[in-house]
Design goal:
Layout (H helix, E strand, L loop, with lengths): L9 E3 L9 E7 L2 E6 L3 E6 L6 E2 L4
Antiparallel strand pairs: 1-2, 1-5, 2-3, 3-4
Length: 57
Amino acid sequence: MNTILEPGTLVRHPARPDWGVGQVQSVAQHRVTVNFQHAGKVVIDGARVELMPVSAS
């Protein structure tokens, strides 16, 4: 699923709902950098965590 992520995609971290919605900043191989509402910029190992896309509505 992380293969469809691109900069600008809105996502949630499945194990950290308290972080709120995040916006993907960059994707480099398995590393996904996301700027979350309540956690700031976080680098996610996409090989270990499957981020959940959020609809823009």
